[in-house]
Amino acid sequence: MKKFAVLLSVLMILSTLLAACAAPAATEAPVVEAPAAAPVATEVPPTEAPAPVTITYWAFGSEGSAMADGTLWTDWYQKLFADYTAAHPNVTIDFALKGYDASGSTLAVDTAVAAGTPPDVYFDTKFRVKKYQDVKLLEDLTPALGADDLAAYDSAAMAGSKSGDMMWSIPADGGYWNMIVNKTIFETAGKTDLLPKGPDYSWTTEEFMTACEAINDPANKVYCTAFFAGSTSMDSATNEWLAGFPECQFFDTANTAYTVNSPACVEAFTFMHTIYEKGLMVPGAAGLIDDTTDPFWLTQQVAILGQGNWYDSITKKGIADGFIKPPFDYIFVQFPNKPGAPVTPVGMANPDVWGVFKQTDPAKLQAIYELVNYMQKPEIATAIAVGWGKIPVRTDATFESSDPAVAEPLAAARKFGSYDPYFVNGVPCNYNDVRQAWAETRQAFWQDNADVQALLDGFVERANGIVTSCP
Q1: What is the pLDDT of residues 260-287, one digit of tens each?
Q2: pTM of the entire predicted model
Q3: Strand 257-258 vs strand 251-252: parallel, antiparallel, or unpaired?
Q4: CB 208 within 8 A of CB 202
Q5: What structural domains does the chain harbor?
């Protein structure tokens, strides 16, 4: 019994020793394995690739239409978008030219909108894009521009791209209105001393009238100038005359009201009607349109016109096609300013803008913002401007031209500022309806014994009725 007790004691001691030896093994195991597990804990999870995005991008034009240097617009855009998508592999751009195939209208876009399949991005002239803003179909593009971008824009161009604080478009370029003068007609008549002189080529309304009366010779089929009002086309060229009367405010943005019947505006239009009363313009302005006015310029029957870059372009085409023989010389001058007023700022004609139709996918909208930001950069927007024979509206665009039709308006705009003769600034809706009302007012204006005040009062009442009915 004693031996058994001893044996039991020995076994208990051995059991305690074995337990003591086993315990460290159980607690030390994690310490040995920890270094191997540490790298796993510090690995960065792989990022997910951006989701694929297809952006539909339409620009006004048609297949086969070319840039000023002869490059096809389709080729230029395809190369540009190939470079962009190479840097953004998740983005596909579905590009098309639309517009000319619908007689220069927005029929193609209107049809797509009606079908619920508008493009994502639409690039066209401001007043055509504006009608989609009128019915609240466009996105706010403020997030597409950085502070440096905003600071670089021509203020008049940017003001016309907003409705309140909402930026419904971003401008790329503008075709600037100045006056074009057939210098050959004045040289033949020995009257070049009456024309504005460089470097500013500015003149007052009095100086303009002196030259106009001196060169006007209807008996020999030469008129000083021409106006037309048979359609809404080129209304901006007539409106540009108001820039020389700075007190005349066509539209009051703050109060959303037309004010073109003010005393200052009546003064401006009374001056213009004097040109009519003295027979210094091609007859029949109320019924003339651009197509019926152009031949007077091309056949040298009119000496001065207010649509400088347009008549430059068709003159160059007429010379190239052999229609104009021999070619005649012409120069560019400022619209006349009221005596004592600053030199008339240069009018922006047909600014081209980007608009973006409403989106439901935030990720896609962000991709569109990034694409638009890329397109509006100075070097790309400048290429678009030059392709259309226009001028970039970013003041940081490193752009010069040896073509006087581009260089001289560009220099004048930089020196004297710019003016928006389309008057879409702040207009909440139905701008095209207002333009039609304005065309009808101008048709009544170019008549004998026109009551300028009454006509402008009638337009203001009608136009304000249109804009105050906006939703």
Answers
A1: 999 999 999 999 999 999 999 999 999 9
A2: 0.76
A3: antiparallel
A4: no
A5: 53-174+350-403 (3.40.190.10), 177-347+428-468 (3.40.190.10)
